Fold:
Amino acid sequence: MMNVRQHLHSKPLEEKSNTVMDTQCPFCSVQCKMQVIEVQEKGRKTYQAIPLDNPASQGRLCIKGMNAHQHAVHPDRILYPMRKVDGEFVRISWSEAIRLIKEMFTRIQQEDGLDALGVYGGATVTNETAYLLGKFARVALKTKHIDYNGRYCMSAAATAGNKAFGIDRGLTNQLSEIPFSKCMILAGTNIAECQPTLMPYFTQAKENRSFIIAIDPRETATTKIADLHLKIKPGMDAALVNGLLKVIFEEGYVDQTFIADRTKGFEALQEHISTIELEHIAEITGISVKQIQTAARAYGKAETGMIFTARGVEQQTDGYMAVRNFINLSLVTGKIGKIGSGYGAITGQGNGQGAREHGHKADQLPGYRSIENPEHRAYVAKVWGIDEQDLPGKGVSAYEMLEKVYQQEITGLFVISSNPVVSSPNANLVEEGLKKLKFLVVADMFVSETARMADLILPASSYLENEGTLTNLEGRVTYRPGNRECPGEVKHDWQILCEVAIALGKETYFSFSSAEEIFHELRIASRGGIADYYGITYDRIKQEGGVYWPCPSQDHPGAGRLFETSFAHPDGKAEIVAVDNHVPKEQMNDQFPLYLTTGRVMTHYLTGVQTRRSHTLLARDVESYLEIHPKTAKKYRIEDASLVKVESRRGSIIVRSKVTEDIREDTVFVPMHWGDLQNVNKITNQALDPNCKMPGFKVCAVKVNPLVGTVSI
Structure:
């Protein structure tokens, strides 16, 4: 990891540079600030990333950030629109591309109805693009079908936060408070590899004698810093929390005053926990009674405490309820709304927070308003200058949209900054569905696994080129310059949307000439909503280094810490709820005797479309792999570093084995960053959480066997 302070005495490179670009990392939700310096020397260009000081990462960069520029300047960048003709992509002009979109979208809606068009976005886009995508779908296309890949990332925690607190923001506290927490629970999160620039906060907490509890079926770089690692059976997090609550209730760690004054629903939880038996919890979770007691006492006794969840907890068919139970833990002990005490969902994608706040989801309008609330609809319709009756209703979640594609209810699809062929569960069905479309448009920087299936590819700008705002995991709205000139005929996402909308006769609503203009309308559209950005301006963000939302006026400082005196429900109280011991929908059996779980590695991001174009990052992790315990490997005759076939009820993949004692004997692990034969989502379970529609990525039943024969991966 690189720190800005390491460069204070280094020789300045600006003397040799052609361009110095201020920017921020396009990958995780920390949004680390940096300069990318383009140096021209001896007839060739080289690049170097220099970290810049900022409140979130305090001048740190990880290996992904230091090498992010490699994909932005990669020769594989799409530089002009390309249409598929006889199975091959050929270059066409922008005017031809826009004309083709207009023709095909119009024909599809005439033949199949307005809702036959779908818009599928991504959570790496700016706030401006996320806002405009929602408006584009509902005003330019008049379709209800819009959702985004953040549904696979944050929907469980987002829904839980809204229901429990009345508001969904990644962290209820500032990152700077982590060192003041005397006990922390890291549940299903591998911060050391996914958000490595945050790790110094946790090492500072350790120096302050914080007790850290990690919950994960694998040993990772994150669990290694923990004082207690609970190596849980995949999918049993909610049940484990019931065990922790049992100890907390019986041993008197409940904050009765906080519960009485600031919560509701406690009695139902208390009655539910009275039926819980610790021995049963130990049996179903794989965590001993002694370990459950140790964890509960450490958290219960601590003066301050923070709980962090991530995809390991949330990407489950009960992800929403599991998060609710972790929130219960915060509420019954009164550890929220003060320094060093709170709850946080560690956002995965760069703008996973902002992208879900401004109408990018099927059920939302800007400002986190509900598309089914008449007052919310009327307000946004007025801002947009349309009749509320013309505003479509609620659509469906990301995976359900792709099911509708497969069922041919959606026959035209516009994909921006996403790769659903690799990121979606049951990926074989997704791929088959996309083949059935009458027209598929993909806007991206590269020919991804999804883009190569498109009828039309549009070249989109990179983080170095695209100005805009993003919201980090704290709820801090940051500004990212776009200093680099777009190469070739590349356009920004928002420009593409405006040009298509204008071609469809909607110029009145899409006559934007800059990202800042879009942000100004976003501010107005969010005003008075849960995610109120009205008091945030480009000038403020630049001057203050970022502004927290909610921020209802320009003289408001922004809310760094939430819930100090009240929660966001009308009565000011948080909602406690009883949570059942959930068992994953797909269980092991004789045919599929192992659990599969998935996740990330340090060097790659999401489906790897960008990071696999970085020669530095790819050299460290060139292919996918299967983590398997030595005893399990021996049982199934699998040797280390050999090719293995992994098969579920939905399909199979081929990866290389990695024999390690870091994983449970009944569980195997495959990262999510590769496509084609190595695409782990060809075998993951498409079953959805009934509350938030999160797929159950983290648990499915599989069998593994040595590969017979030869194959190229």
